[in-house]
Amino acid sequence: MGVHSSAVFITFVVYLIALLVIGYIGDKKFSKSYEDFVSAGKSLGAIVTALSAAASSESAWVMLGLSGLGYKMGTIAYWAAIGCVLGFAANWFFIIKPVRRLSGKLNSLTVADMIEDALNDRKKVLRIVSSVIIVFFMTVYVISQFIGAGKTFSGMEIIPQSMVNSLQHFVGNTFTVNEYTLGVIIGAVIIGAYILMGGYAAVCWTDALQGFLMVFILVILPFYALFQAGGIGNVVDVLKQNGLFSFWSLKGAGLWGSVGFILGQLGIGLGYQGMPHVVVRFITVENEEEAVKSGMISTFWALFVLFGSVSLGIIGRALFPELADPEYVLPKFTSTYLHPVLAGIVLSAITAAIMSTADSQLMYAATALVNDLWLKLTNKEVKREKLVIITRAVIVAITLFAMIFALKNIKVIYSFVLYAWGALGAAFSPLIILLLYDKKFNKWGALANLIVGPVVVIVWKNIPALSSALYELIPAFLLSLIAGIVVSRLTSNEERELVI
Prior knowledge:
By secondary structure, this protein is mainly alpha-helical.
């Protein structure tokens, strides 16, 4: 069934309007105070915190990249889902509550605030280094989300060619107009609009809505796809014919290649403990009790969403055996098998996955530049209303920068996201863990985390023999963790009081 229908547009437009309405409500409630604009007054409950943290951590990767991995790799791709769910569970049991307790004690607004105050870094070295890392790699991440928006529009073919031709005529030779470029631009404009209005509250409320959409789609669609594919037996036969039915071995790889792939997928979970735009949710949740509830909700959300995405990709192999780009499997299934209204809902869900991450990263990158760097380093007395305006201006600048790069259409979302995820995870996950659980951990150990983690990721990623053997986050995380422990003990014998 084609989706060139007004029903798709109407459904999708209603969803976009809902996002803007949420942004407007956030503007009325939380845009007067700078602290409210960047933290929603630390008033978020368990459900909003859980869904917004979960949705913002997964992005277009879970809807397009992970389903594409299932399509390409078969059942062994479930290891990626397992690794991610373990990351969510680790946060639930070990990270969320102590982060809320520590940040509450220190009255922190951001991750940089919490690190600086907890480690008594009066020279603000950690603030500078951590903020630079956050801004750079989160901008890379935002670019990947805008790429996902372009792929979604292109894969679902929802924009009439006549409209594309008209827009091309309007812009002339400035740039090429197609469904991909329109998807990038629409995603960037809508995200920027509701963040500019409602700030952090709008980000979290829209992310909660988007998280609900994602779990709804990725629970329902795999069952419907399985029905269309003729049942489990037929899917299994297709997988066996293509050598994709093994849970333990990767097609075309030997024993060590398969082991490296499995460890790499499990290693994705090492990033969740320190992802700044996720950790800030733990800082802004209302209290410790709500924090623990949010950890449980987000873990079960991840279980359904991640396994559903891989399953859809695997089933898609039986439905579309010749896809040129595996990451188009969800848009292709939607445009082929769903009614236009349902196609509009799926389009909204994919866009939700993109927006829920991009908005969080845009908001946090802007906060890092304005609050963590400019405001705290200059110690200027600035009216809070002016800070809101400055933060909004920075959001616009980062959005435009990311959109321009995304228009270049860099192809592989999965690899691009994992690169940024690896660098941020290797820098901050060991740091957060040691900050919470190591009494002897100090500012020099934290600095070692921030340097060693990203450097190892960059070096490992750019050496083909290493990169092909093992996902770079694993060695980077371990070396960063060791560096933090060793450097802390070499530079001081003092112990901190832990809050756990």
